[in-house]
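WARN no homologs supplied; continuing
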Amino acid sequence: MGTAIVGAVAVLVGALASGVAQWAVHLAGRRERQREAAGLAVAVLLEKAARYRGEQYLKRVARRDHQLETPDDRRARYQARTEMTAAGAHVVRSVPDVHLRSLARELVGYSLAVGDCDPADLTVVGDQARAAHDLLQDAMAQYLHRA
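OK structure emitted
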């Protein structure tokens, strides 16, 4: 009788240990999926912000060269802005790291400033936007590679 009780307890302890191990694997997998999703969200934002800044530089070059803006030019620029803003909002909603969310907001803000700043300030604002881009990219790499 005592042997049966010890055997039953051993089976229960084994089942409990197995359940705990499965739960730990589940949590680790979940964290990894969240990390990958955050990396993708930031990568999309980086690409959309660069595209938006490119559209703004094209606008400024066209104006400097006295070229008329076409409806397609304006549409492309507004589309790029919308995509960047949406990508930034997605980062804010999906990335758990507060520092990364803050850097994402800074990138969007500096990128928007490229289109809105005085032409005399474009070099400084452009440098700030590129620096914000690099900071977010570097912080995301650290986030992805930390244990």
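The helical segments are 2-64, 71-94, 98-116, 122-145.
OK
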